[in-house]
Amino acid sequence: MRRRLVAGNWKMNKNYREAMDLFEKLNEASAAMPAEVDVMIAPPALYLTGFAKTSTRKIEVGAQDVSHREEEEGAFTGEVSAAILKSAGVRYAIVGHSERRQYHGENDELIGKKIQACVKAELTPVYCCGESLEERESDRHFEVVRKQVSTALSGFSAEELSALIIAYEPVWAIGTGKTASAEQAQEMHADIRANVKELFGAEFAEKVRILYGGSCKPGNAAEIFGKPDVDGGLIGGAALKAEDFTAIIGAGF
Length: 253
Ligand code: 13P
What we know:
By secondary structure, this protein is α/β, with parallel strands linked by helices. 42% of the residues lie in helices and 15% in strands. It has an 8-stranded parallel sheet with strand order 7-6-5-4-3-2-1-8. The longest helix is centred in the C-terminal third of the chain and has 19 residues, at 182-200. The protein is globular and about 45 Å long. The relative contact order is 0.15. Bound molecules: 1,3-dihydroxyacetonephosphate (13P). Residues 9, 97, 169, 174-175, 213-216, 234-238 line the site of 1,3-dihydroxyacetonephosphate.
């Protein structure tokens, strides 16, 4: 019932020539991608407009971040508003990635403002959450993720968040080659769904897509995506190779 979404977060990778090359390969491959799967790529911000203009209908474009400011424009040097992204053909914005939390001091209050900016501009927010290794080892992972989700999403109505996508990315699995097992992903996704059910009701919980991210590869994607509460993936390293990303999109089909 929920459509699978596979999203590629390129992070701070690919110079211009490399980015065009990867984008072209993905565009070429897109005709053979399964119709049942939605596909999004989030390249460095500089490439967004060009990609949004020239991607095939299959591949949608997302930003890796967005300003927390609600103003559509103004004197905020370096910021890119949700409205500006939207006007350039961008459909999604990743918010609250653990690397933004770690290196830029973002917390769930600020991330909530970014979600608000997305809601106002009708940009689809992809809200990232996930526990650190220390939090998992001390058996606090459910509690930590519940707090992240309920803080960032507090004050919203179910209707305002109708487009929301959640990405569960355990920090210890990002870029480490150490993936959560399919069972670990499933039990956390089920808990996130139970949490949003308490916050926004059963209909919302049934509908919201929850992606898994963290060392997702062609070799493990089908098993992880096969779990009932996993609705696709947010892919880092493996999204930088057209063959790997395409294989993950087609995993299990
Ligand atoms: P990796 O797939 O490289 O572990 O990165 C996951 C991620 O952070 C996607 O946002």
